[in-house]
Write a structure and sequence with these properties.
Layout: E1 18-23, E2 26-33, E3 36-41, E4 46-51, E5 63-66, E6 73-77, E7 80-88, E8 100-109, E9 115-120, E10 126-131, E11 134-142, E12 172-181, E13 186-191, E14 197-202, E15 207-213, E16 223-229, E17 234-239, E18 254-259, E19 264-268
Antiparallel strand pairs: 1-2, 2-3, 3-4, 5-6, 6-7, 7-8, 9-10, 10-11, 11-12, 13-14, 14-15, 15-16, 17-18, 18-19
Amino acid sequence: MHRHQILTGAANPSDYSFAAGSIESIHFVAYTAGYNIVILSGDFQRIQILLSGNENNQCLLTCIDCTHESGKIVVGFGNQVCIYEPTVTSERSLHHQVNYRWSLKSTLTCSNEKITAVAWHPKGDQLIVVCESGLQVWFNQTDENEARPSKVNFQIGGIDTSTKVSANTGSKSWKNVWSYKSASPIKHVTYSNDGCLFATASQNDRLVKIWYRTEDSSPIVSFTSTYLPHPRAVTYISWRQTSQFFAEGTVANCLLTCCKDNICRIWCETMQ
């Protein structure tokens, strides 16, 4: 008998229990099932099942998100966040074309509260973590104290014996650079396609907040917001997808919002 189908289990009961991502234009889907992370190909063939190692804590995975360039995956459970990164594998599958395997790279303890949502920056170097009382913005920073080559060596022909520096050189650490306390629990959070803005909305909230980084000379990272008013509670928000080859700020960001008055609204950024 031949294998017909593999059932990987139902997704956890959460609004952020599944996400879509891509790496080198290869699409995949990831979702949380109990304490595990299930990764499927674009046509829903099983690629990998990650064991989160969270069984002893008895906390189900509550949220997940994926990047659309580097293929990184982030999941939240309890008050912790786990970040997984893909690596190329020599294994070949007859059922899918995703020749990558994911492994745990970082674990962050964000607060003493339950994490309810996570959102990746498009470049994968920033992360929004939503907890019960607000949100936190985390940056992935390269250790500036690590040694770097003092010069670039060029050679014609022969074998280059100079020191080679890989793309992964430099130890990176995640740092909480900004926090915000919300009057009510945040329900929706998403980055714009260029990463310059992110939008949030609370449960049964009529106001959508658009956050952007303040421009000043201070080294301290801070964000400020503007409001998009609605007649009734907002139920869904989504940014317009644009090509990754556009430079930041060259294309106006557009936000789609859905409201309980059964009307969808499109908000366009004013370019200066």
